């Protein structure tokens, strides 16, 4: 028979076991994975793969002399999910850290035989008027890891999805045959086309704002111009640095990127420069609008001050006369005359009328 002390040792205490730390719970990579596909000989192979199985399939095909690559897409992965992918594909830890934490400027970096490209995505926020919105351009990020036989894309933000890009790519065998760097071109081309679309819409807002500033009967709100200028600055930060990096693709990485893909990338570079030139022009226009708006406000203030001064001058005449004859003295001119009071009123009216006519003639009223 077990002793009393032994029974006490095995007796349940009624305490709950401590809850596991949330940081120690690892969410599987599949939760962050948008799509994972294997491409071979210009077409996408059927079936669903994990990131590790997809790379194994590619390496198996390559052993048989067949060109193949894998494209895996992730949306806002956490540290564990991104590290699991990095371990399989051999991604550099510095690039992995940038991909997880985001908030990077557009850039292109090379780690051995892997290119790491950061793109800023932009989205135009629809609105009825600039006066009723607080945001015009929304930004996100897409990071692209490109190796010899793989592409890993990491997207941050609610817009900028690549489903349409992938569908178009899947329907184009010629692009698939160009390999993983063709995927990089397809994504960059899609992002830069969005730059042009957004700049077109922003230009419409700026034209409306310009018309409002130079309209003679409209109120000028300088705050709205500053809002638009802030959004244009955000656009410039997304677009301008990319042009320099795209130029490097065509000059510094010939050993990685085929001649055909570099031709396509030059077209993307041209569109990027076009978008950058537009944005630079918008910035100059908005700076001019700020100066024009300030000048218009100053003119309105001067006009208001002239009107106020004119009415004060007109009101000063009856005020002075009423003040003089309001004093309690017996010996004052015409004080005891019957026509004295009407005469003072007539003088007041005459002088006020003459002042009013002169102010109107001089456009003070």
TrEMBL record:
Compartments (UniProt record): Cell membrane; Membrane
Pfam family, one: CorA
Record keyword DNA-binding present: no
TM helices/strands, residue ranges: 308-327, 339-359
Membrane topology: Multi-pass membrane protein
UniProt key word Transport: yes
GO cellular component, one term: plasma membrane
Catalytic activity: Mg(2+)(in) = Mg(2+)(out)
Record's keyword terms, sorted: Cell membrane, Ion transport, Magnesium, Membrane, Transmembrane, Transmembrane helix, Transport
Annotated segments matching region Disordered: 1-22
GO molecular function, one term: cobalt ion transmembrane transporter activity
Family membership: Belongs to the CorA metal ion transporter (MIT) (TC 1.A.35) family.
Purpose: Mediates influx of magnesium ions. Alternates between open and closed states. Activated by low cytoplasmic Mg(2+) levels. Inactive when cytoplasmic Mg(2+) levels are high.
Protein name: Magnesium transport protein CorA
The encoding gene: corA
């Amino acid at each position: 028979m077990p002793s009393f002390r032994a029974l006490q040792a095995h007796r349940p205490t009624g305490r709950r076991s401590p809850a596991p730390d949330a940081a120690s719970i690892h969410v599987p990579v599949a939760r962050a994975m948008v799509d994972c596909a294997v491409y071979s000989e210009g077409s996408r192979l059927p079936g669903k793969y994990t990131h590790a199985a997809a790379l194994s399939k590619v390496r198996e095909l390559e052993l048989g002399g067949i060109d193949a690559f894998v494209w895996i897409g992730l949306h806002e992965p956490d540290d564990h999910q991104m590290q699991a992918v990095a371990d399989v594909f051999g991604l550099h830890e510095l690039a992995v850290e940038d991909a997880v934490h985001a908030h990077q400027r557009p850039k292109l970096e090379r780690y051995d035989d892997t290119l790491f490209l950061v793109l800023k995505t932009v989205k135009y926020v629809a609105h009825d008027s600039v006066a009723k919105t607080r945001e015009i351009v929304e930004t996100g990020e897409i990071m692209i890891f490109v190796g010899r036989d793989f592409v890993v894309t990491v997207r941050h933000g609610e817009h900028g999805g690549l489903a349409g890009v992938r569908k178009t790519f899947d329907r184009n065998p010629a692009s698939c045959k160009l390999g993983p760097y063709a995927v990089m071109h397809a994504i960059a081309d899609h992002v830069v086309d969005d730059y042009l679309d957004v700049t077109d819409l922003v230009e419409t807002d700026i034209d409306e704002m310009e018309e409002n500033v130079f309209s003679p009967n409209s109120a000028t709100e300088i705050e709205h111009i500053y809002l638009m200028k802030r959004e244009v600055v955000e656009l410039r930060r997304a677009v301008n640095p990319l042009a320099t990096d795209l130029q490097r693709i065509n000059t510094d990485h010939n050993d990685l990127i085929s001649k055909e893909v570099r031709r396509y990338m030059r077209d993307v570079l041209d569109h990027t420069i076009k978008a950058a030139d537009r944005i630079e022009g918008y910035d100059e226009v908005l700076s001019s609008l700020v100066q024009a708006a300030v000048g218009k406000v100053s003119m309105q203030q001067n006009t208001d001050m002239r009107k106020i001064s004119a009415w004060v001058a007109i009101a000063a005449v009856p005020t002075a006369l009423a003040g003089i004859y309001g004093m309690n003295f017996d010996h004052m001119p015409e004080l005891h005359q019957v026509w004295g009071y009407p005469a003072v009123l007539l003088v007041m009216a005459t002088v006020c009328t003459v002042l009013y006519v002169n102010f109107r003639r001089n456009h003070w009223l």
